[in-house]
Amino acid sequence: MLRFLFLAMMVFQLLVFGAEAEENPLVKQTHIHIENGIVYCDVQTFNQEAYILKVLGGGSPLTVFWQFDVLRERAFWSNSSVAVVRLGRQVIPDLVTKRWLMRDLSAGVIRYTSDIHVAMRFLTTMNHAAAVDVSLLNKQEKYILGTKLYVYEGEWEEEASWWTTMMNWGEDMGSVELIIPDEGAAVE
Amino acid sequence: MKVQRLNKRINQYTPFLATWFPFVLSAGLLVMTAWVWPSDEQFGPTFLNWLNMILFLVLALVAFVFGLQRMKRGESKRAGTHLRTKLITAMVLMVLVPSLVFQITANQVIEKGMDVWFDVRVDTLLDKAMKLAQGFYAGIESDMELSLTQVASDNDLPLEILSAPLGTMMISQHLNKLLQQYGWHKAELFDVSERVIAVVQREIRGQRLNDLRTRPLSDTGKLSIVLGHQSVEHEVRNNGEYVVGYLPLYNQQRLVALLRSEVRLPEDVTASARSIEADYRTYRELERHRQGIQQIFTHTLMIAMILITCIAAAIAIFFARKLTTPIEDLALALKKVEKGDFNTLVHIHAQDELGSLASSFNSMTARLKQNMEVLTQTQQELTGALVSSRQRQFVLENLLANLQSGVILLDESGGIRLMNQACYELLSLPESTLKKSIFDFSEVHLSPMLDFFETLQTQGLKSLQTELVLSHGLQTTKILARGTLLGEKEDKLFSRWLLVFDDVTQLADAQKHQAWSEVAQRLAHEIKNPLTPIKLSTERVQRRFRSQVDDVEVFDTCTYAVINQVERLQRLLADFSNLATLPKPKTEVVSIASLLRDMRELYSPYQNLTFEGLPEGDVCCDPDQIRQVLINLIDNALATNTHVRVFVEVTAKDTCFYVQDEGVGIDATTQKHMFEPYFSTKQNGSGLGLAIAQRITEEHGGQLQLVSASSPTRFCMWLPHVFNCRSQEVAA
Q1: Is residue A175 part of a domain?
Q2: Lowest mean pLDDT among A18-32, A149-163, B430-444
Q3: Which of B132, B202, B418, B507 could serve as B409's disulfide partner, Cβ 3.0–4.6 Å?
Q4: Is the Cβ pair B277, A167 closer than 8 Å?
Q5: Does residue B257 come out as left (phi exceeding 0), alpha (psi in the -120 to 50 range) or beta?
Q6: Which of B140, B234, B242, B276 to mutate to probe the A interface, most A CBs <10 Å?
Q7: β-pair partners for B476
C-alpha cells in the first residue's frame, strides 16, 4: 500500500512540477573566473526582467539574493557543501521623484538612478561576485558551483522574513563545474 | 416510474459507489491539490494555498486509506454498508452542493467586484494623480536647475568670493538677494575644500536649531565639483523633503566655490504626493496580484467549504453509523436465523422505531425458536411413527408375501388395494396379471369368488365364510374363503373389505382319506372276520356234501360262487386295508432305467405295450410303491385294449412318468371323481387303484395328474428330485 501511495505521489509531483517547468523556461547565464585566488562568478537572469520592471514601475521595492553554493561532488552520497555565499541587492522606487534607490545589502552602498532599466539590471545581474577562496578547494578535484536567485517583493527585513525565506525555495540559475588546476586557472 | 427507475439505478450503482467512491474522491482531491498549488505569480503569502493543498492532500490520503481498508475488509459486502454509504453520500451532498453553489457564486461576485475595483477610470485617475505629483516635483527641480543656470551666468558672485574678504556681508547679501530672487529657502557657499563660506537661510515654520547646522556635501555635490557642472537632487530629511541644487562657481576656468541651494517642499503637498504614491503603489500591487487576491478569497472560501464538508461528513458518518448499526445487527442476526441459529438476539440500542424493530425481531426469533422446537419434536415423533409404520408395513408385507393364505384388500367399490403373492398362486393367476378391481376377475374359474364377494357386499354381512371349489383346467382346488367388513363406510381412506383365501384341498382330501380309512378299517374289521369262516364253511360243505347232493353241478357252481365272492370280498378288504394303512414310503435312489426295465419284463407278454427309451438318471422313491402306481396306471390303460405308451421325461427339477393310451378318453364326470376311492367305471373294479396311486404319489411329494382327458389319454406321475431320500440320508 505504501509503495503504491509513494508511486502515486511521485507521479503527482512529476505532473505538477513538470507542468510548472514547462510554463517557465529558465533563461540564465553563469560564468566563473579566478582572480587573485578568488573564484568570481558572473550571473545574469533574463526571465525576471519583465516582472522586475513591472514591480519597480509600480513603486514596490524589490530585494534579490544571489546565493552561490560550492559543493564537493561525491560519487555515492549527496554532495557536501564547501562554501555558501549570499549577496543581496535591493531597489526601492520613489515614484514621485522618478528615482530608484539601489542598495547593495552586502556592501552597504546606496545609489540612485532615474532609469528604471538600470535599477532592473542592478537586480538581474551579478557580476564579479566573489564565490569562494581557492584556498578552500583542493586542486584537481571536481566541485560544482550552483547559483540560486531569491526574489522578495516588498519591504524585506532580515529578522521578520523567516517565513518568507522558508517558503521561498529560490530559482535555480544553473551550475557549473569547477576544477582548480595546478596553475590556478578555472576550468568549466 | 422515473423515481423507481432512479432508485433502481441508485441501487444498481450503490455497491460500485461504496467500493470505488473513496478512490474517486481521493483522485478528485489530488486534482484539487494540484489546482491549489501556489504559483510564483501569486500575490502575497501563499499560506492559504499551502493550507488548502495540505487539507486536500490529507483528505485524499484519508480517503485512499479508507478505501483500501474497506476493500481489504470487504466491507462493501457487509450488511448495512450500502445504506450507510447512501446516507453519508446524501448528507455530504446536502452540504457540499450548496457549498459549491455558494463558492461558485462567491467567485463570480468576487470577480465582478474585482472588475469594479480595478476599473479603468480608477486606473486613469491614479495615473493622472501620480503624474500630477511627479509634475510638481519635476517643476521644483526644473525651477532649481533654471535658477542655477541663471546664477551660473552671473560672474559677480565668483568675483565677490575672490575679492571680498571672508566674513564680510557682501557675499551674504548676494546670497540673500539670490534667495529672494529664486525663492530658495537656503543658500550655502562652499570653498574648494568643501568648507562653508557663507550661509543664507530663510526662516521656516517649525524649524529647530539643529536644522540650522550646515549639512555636509552629498555625493551629488561632490560629483558636481568633480564634474564641474550643476546638479539637482532630491533629499528626504526628517523635517521634510528638499530639492537641493549644486552649482560649481568658476572664475576664469578656475573653481572658486560650490553653491548649494535648497528649496523645502511644502509639507501638505509632499504629504499628498506621498499619499498618492502609496496609493498608486498599493493599487499597482493589487492590480498585479489581482488573480492572487481573487485566489485568496477563493481559497478562504474553499477552506471554509472543506471544513464545513468535513464536519458534515463527520456528523453524517456519526449519524449513519448510529442509524445503520442496528440495521446491520438486524441483518447479521437475520442471516444467522436464516442459517438456523435461533438463539440470536439483537441488542436494542434505543427506544425508537429501530429499537421497536429489534424488539419485534427478538420476540419473532423466540417464537420461531419455540415453533422450531415443536416442529422438531413433531418431526421426531412423525419420523418415529413413520419408521414404526414402515416397520409394520414391512412386517405386514413380508407376512403377506410369506403367508400361504391369499389376502385381498378391497375398497368400497371393489377396487383391489392389496393382493398378495399367495393369492395369485391360489387363484392360478399369472404374476403379470393386473387386476384393479375384483370385478376384473372375469375368468370362468374365478366366478365363485366374484359370487362370494357379491354375496358379502349385497347382503351387508360383516363377515362371511364359505368353501369354494375352483376348477382350472383339470385341476380342482378347494378354497376356504372368508370375507370381513373393515371400518366404516364413510372412511374412504381405509380398505373396506378383507378377503382371505386358504387352499383346503389337501385338508379336505386328508379328511376324506381319513374318513375312508376309518370306514375301510371298520369294514375290514366287521366283514373280514366272518368271511374266513364263511369260506372255510363253504369249502367244508363242498367237500362233505358234494357227494350227497343230487345236482353236483349246481352244487359246485353255488359253492364256488360263494367261495369266489368271499375271496373277492377278501381282496376288496385287503385293498381297503391297504388304502387305510398305506405305509410311509421307504425311499432310496433308484435308477429310472431299472424301474422301466422291471416294468418291461413284467408286461413283456403284452404286445400293445411299449416302453420308449431308457433315460439315464435316478429318482428318489420307494420302488415298490412306485411300481404299484405304474402297474395301476398301465392296467387301466391296457383295459382300453389300445396301444399303450410308457415314457419318461427327466428335467432338472423333476421326473415325469407318462402312461398314454389311445382309448376313447375320459368324460368330465369321471375326471371329477376318478381319484376318489371306490369310484370305478369297471364292473369288477374296486375303485381304489387311482386313489391309492395318487396317495402314493403325494406321499412322495409328487403329483398324479390327468394331463390329457381326450384321446390319446395321458396320465403323468410327477416326482421331485428333492424329495427326502432315506438312502441319501443314511449315506450322509
Answers
A1: yes
A2: A18-32
A3: B418
A4: no
A5: beta
A6: B234
A7: B471
Residue B731 predicted with pLDDT over 50: no
In angstroms, the CA A111 to CA A99 distance is 10
How many structural domains are present in chain A?
Answer: 1
For residues A57 and A77, the answer to whether their CB atoms sit within 8 Å is no
B102 alpha carbon, distance to own chain's centre:
52
DSSP A180: B
Beta-bridge mates of residue A94: A99
Q: How far apart are CA B634 and CA B625, in angstroms?
A: 14
Q: Which three cell numbers stand for residue B246?
A: 549644486
CB contact, 8 Å: B285 with chain A? yes
Which domain does A75 fall in, by range? 44-129+138-179
Q: Which grid cell sits at A183?
A: 596553475
Task: Give contacts of A94 with chain B, Cβ < 8 Å.
Answer: 234, 277
Q: Chain B: residue nearest A99 by CA?
A: B234
Q: Would residue A81 count as lying in a domain?
A: yes
The dihedrals phi and psi of B188, each to the nearest 5 degrees, come to: -135, 150
pLDDT level of residue B209 (50, 70, 90 thresholds): confident
Q: Do A58 and B284 touch (CB under 8 A)?
A: yes
Q: Which residues, 6+ apart, have CB-to-CB distance to B22 below 8 Å?
A: B63, B64, B66, B67, B70
Per-residue model confidence as pLDDT tens digits over B667-722: 888 887 888 777 788 777 777 788 888 888 888 888 888 888 888 899 999 988 76
Set of cell numbers at residue B348: 436494542
**Domain membership flag for residue A26:** no
Residues 99-128 of A with CB under 8 A from B: 99, 112
What pLDDT is attached to residue B18? 65
Place of cell 543664507: B200
* B609-612 and B644-650 beta bridge pairing: parallel
Hey, what's the cell of B250?
568658476
- What is the dihedral sign for C-alpha B597, B602, B605, B608? negative
DSSP label at residue A141: -
If you average pLDDT over residues B299-305, what whole number do you get?
81
The answer to whether residue A160 is domain-embedded is: yes
pLDDT mean across residues, chain B = 82
Three-state DSSP class for residue B231 = strand
pTM of the model: 0.50
Per-residue confidence band for B145, with pLDDT thresholds at 50, 70 and 90: very high
Quick one: B384 exposed, middle or buried, by C-beta within 10 A (0-12, 13-18, 19+)? exposed
Q: Convert the pLDDT of each residue in A34-82 to its tens digit.
A: 888 899 999 988 888 898 999 999 999 999 999 999 999 887 888 889 8
